[in-house]
Amino acid sequence: MKKEEFKTLFDAYFESVRRYILYRSGNEELATDIAQDTFLRIWEKQMIVDPKTGKSLLLKIAGDLLITQYRREKVAFNFFNTFQPANRSNTPEDELNFQELKKSYERALESMPEKQRAVFLMNRVDELKYKEIADQLELSVKAIEKRMGQALEHLRTEMKDKISVLILFVMGFRLNPSKI
């Protein structure tokens, strides 16, 4: 694929791809990132894109990237919810830091708007699928997707300064929050 062809493709479909992801996730920053990643994949793999089916291909790639992103987040949240530090190798400082992370997570959940929190907990704790949640709340699946996206964004925002502490804790490093 030549630069000119790529630029034409980018100019024609970037905003459509971004809006599609924004509609599915409710997160502008994530939508922009995924749209950019979609075009980056096209460029890196030097795909030949037929103008007639180009938009469909781009939306499929973007949708797959969004699903991958949510799966990564789900794994991280499930790990955090089920992780129990082994008492034999943790210092009292490690245990204190873990409890601080857990409290931060609980505060973020408490500060989340009720509608978002309900959808988040039904999905992550009760392990209900979006369709099941939509049926119980008498809403559309799209409304559930939007609330879930907003809930995840809320948690990301509220816990952004704690994520690096969690990663270091999991890796087994001694934590000193004043140095992070």
Task: Describe, in plain words, how this protein is organized in 3D.
The protein folds into two domains: about 5-70; about 85-180, Winged helix-like DNA-binding domain superfamily/Winged helix DNA-binding domain (Arc Repressor Mutant, subunit A, Orthogonal Bundle), CATH 1.10.10. About 75% of the residues lie in helices and about 0% in strands. The protein has helices spanning about 5-25, 30-45, 55-80, 90-110, 115-125, 130-135, 140-160, 165-170. Helix 1 runs antiparallel to helix 2, helix 5 crosses helix 7 and helix 6 crosses helix 7 (about 140-160).
Order of helices and strands: HHHHHHHH
- How is the main sheet built? none
Query: How many distinct folded domains?
Result: 2
Write down the CATH topology of the largest domain: Arc Repressor Mutant, subunit A
| CATH homologous superfamily label of the largest domain | Winged helix-like DNA-binding domain superfamily/Winged helix DNA-binding domain
Mean pLDDT across the residues is 80
Write the layout of secondary structure elements.
Elements: H1 3-25, H2 28-44, H3 54-82, H4 92-111, H5 114-124, H6 130-137, H7 141-158, H8 163-171
Helix pairs in contact: 1-2, 1-3, 2-3, 5-7, 6-7
Question: In a nutshell, what does this entry contain?
Answer:
With 180 residues, the protein is mostly helical. 75% of the residues lie in helices and 0% in strands.
